[in-house]
Amino acid sequence: MSEPAIRIASMNKYYGNFHALKDIDLTVAPGEKVVICGPSGSGKSTLIRCINRLEEHQSGTIAVMGTVLDDNVDHIDEIRRDAGMVFQNFNLFPHMTVLENCTLAPVLARKIDRAEAEATAMKYLERVKIPEQAHKYPGELSGGQQQRVAIARALCMSPKIMLFDEPTSALDPEMISEVLDVMVGLAQEGMTMVCVTHEMGFARQVADRVIFMADGEIIEQGSPAEFFNNPRNERAKAFLSQVLGH
Amino acid sequence: MSFAADFPKDSAFNKAKARYFATPTDAVVSALFAAFAVWILWSLANWALLHAVFGANQRDACMATEGACWSVVSTRWRIVLFGLYPFEEQWRSAIACVVMVVVAALSCVPWFWSARRLPPLWIAGFAIFYVLMRGGWFGLREVTEQNWGGLSLTIFIFAAVSLLGMPLAIVFALLRRSDLPWIARTMALVIDVIRSLPLLSIMFTFAIVMPFVLPDWAIGDKLYRVIVGYALFFACYQAEIIRGGMQALPAGQEEAAKALGLTYWHRIGYIVLPQAFRNALPPTINQFVITFKETSLVTIIGFFDVMASGRAASGNADWNFATIEMYVFVALIFFVFVFTLSRYGAYLERRLGVGRR
Ligand SMILES: Nc1ncnc2c1ncn2[C@@H]1O[C@H](COP(=O)(O)OP(=O)(O)OP(=O)(O)O)[C@@H](O)[C@H]1O
Ligand SMILES: [Mg+2]
């Protein structure tokens, strides 16, 4: 069997004395799409941010594409190049144009020459359907457009895995679908995806596996069909009835 | 009554009437102040213009009038601008000053606001300034720092302090927010200590005390010691300004840069500092204004900056009755520099206030 895309084993994370992630075990196969959901404060963001070292874990192992995440800066850089990330509030660089946002990291971190990086950036901007905004500043775009730029920016690094932390929850309702469409397209092309989201329609449509977290633990996981139709855990049931609105 | 009614309601006349002549007491006070202001202006104009002597070398005419003796300025302005710099070489000093003023003006153009353009501009400008002033190269006669003076010395000190202090300020600001607590805390302590000392005492320490403390090879010229001390002082204030600009950045900016695999220096150079400087532009300009003005403190350590040169120019037996005129001239020079800078700061504040983001 091939190396998993992400392998997390008995990983623990503390914020000071607060035990934020408890004994997490999670393996994501190449090409797999995993949706993480759970109540607020359950540790979803913390988990996904540990994968690329935006947060440091205290014990256990995390490996991405075979690279073990430790204090070695080269390993951290390699993992960050392999795993693209999309944030809830976009985090585009406001002092750069859309195109500059998309070419900065390829030119600096991957040492690709500018012309080639710009061609790649235009390709991805077309893919997220906003090539005509390339020379605008982020502040001139709508939320949905900004989030699509953020996805394009991450894709420009040719990542093997994409991490999404609630990519649609800061958006106005009418803009959610334009972002989800892009994500569905990405999934269909076979990208490995780990996605924290409460968009259950999206989860049903693309997820291979749904993971339910509460209080820093993975409480339940299974295929979308299993999870949505037949949640075993009480808290998962309560959570589902809340987000699905019945 | 009917007189005022002839004017539209919001005319300047009616506004003035409402503001300054609403009650009889108001009217009396306003009239008194107006008369006083007119009297001051009139006396000033009389002194500075109507009865003044403008031409060079007119000491006798000066003695005869009760007006201002601008003759002292037109006779001895070279001392104010160039100090003791040799007369035949003063064109070099003049060009050097113009170069630095052009550099300062270009730094105000947004196109230059990048790490790849601003430092080379300043380094090039400063190098030209130094080569022109100091000579010894390209067939230029050597003029050592002891003979520098006047406005050109002031500009030299200001430029050197900025050029040295700004990178230092960035380093201080970065150390101040280091992840290692003992580095961050030590830096905070150093910054706070230096900021709590008067600039004058720092200059004295570097000019007079340092030679006893430092090994011989590190002593250097007194001028450069004062510049280093002043740069350190500048850096501590500017570091706090930059830090303020950094704190205004949302945490997500650095996280996004990390997630893209950018190294620490790339994150600092391309994401954090450009935005921090943009946030901190108005206080930064303010800091430059203060720094320019306070260069005049070096007179106390015995340098002939523009201020001391002004005093020297009117200090000989021929002209010592015209000290005030000389000081007015020096004040005017400071005013031109500082007022331009602060107007520019105000313009930027307005521009950035409505700007993007
Ligand atoms: N920097 C931090 N310092 C201390 N505690 C933190 C920090 N970040 C998160 N926490 C705590 O860790 C727990 C998990 O937070 P996390 O942000 O991962 O939750 P989440 O599942 O993403 O919630 P949400 O749905 O609201 O985004 C919460 O109790 C939170 O208060
Ligand atoms: Mg979260």
From TrEMBL, chain A:
Entries under CDD domains matching the protein: ABC_HisP_GlnQ
Keyword terms: ATP-binding, Nucleotide-binding, Transport
Domain of life: Bacteria
InterPro entries: AAA+_ATPase, ABC_ATPase_HisP-typ, ABC_transporter-like_ATP-bd, ABC_transporter-like_CS, MetN_ABC_transporter-like, P-loop_NTPase
GO molecular function, one term: ATP binding
Cited Pfam families: ABC_tran
Annotated SUPFAM superfamilies: P-loop containing nucleoside triphosphate hydrolases
Keyword hit for Transport: yes
Keyword Cell membrane: no
Recorded family membership: Belongs to the ABC transporter superfamily.
Name of the protein: Amino acid ABC transporter ATP-binding protein
TrEMBL record, chain B:
Keywords: Cell membrane, Membrane, Transmembrane, Transmembrane helix, Transport
Topology in membrane: Multi-pass membrane protein
Transport as UniProt keyword: yes
Subcellular location per the Swiss-Prot or TrEMBL entry: Cell inner membrane; Cell membrane
InterPro entries registered for this protein in UniProt: AA_ABC_transptr_permease_3TM, ArtM/GltK/GlnP/TcyL/YhdX-like, MetI-like, MetI-like_sf
Transmembrane segments: 20-42, 91-113, 120-140, 152-175, 196-214, 326-347
Superkingdom field: Bacteria
Domain ABC transmembrane type-1: 151-340
Pfam families with a match to the protein in the record: BPD_transp_1 (PF00528)
Keyword presence, Transmembrane helix: yes
Residue runs in coiled coils: none
Family: Belongs to the binding-protein-dependent transport system permease family. HisMQ subfamily.
Protein name: Amino acid ABC transporter permease
Lineage: Bacteria, Pseudomonadati, Pseudomonadota, Alphaproteobacteria, Rhodobacterales
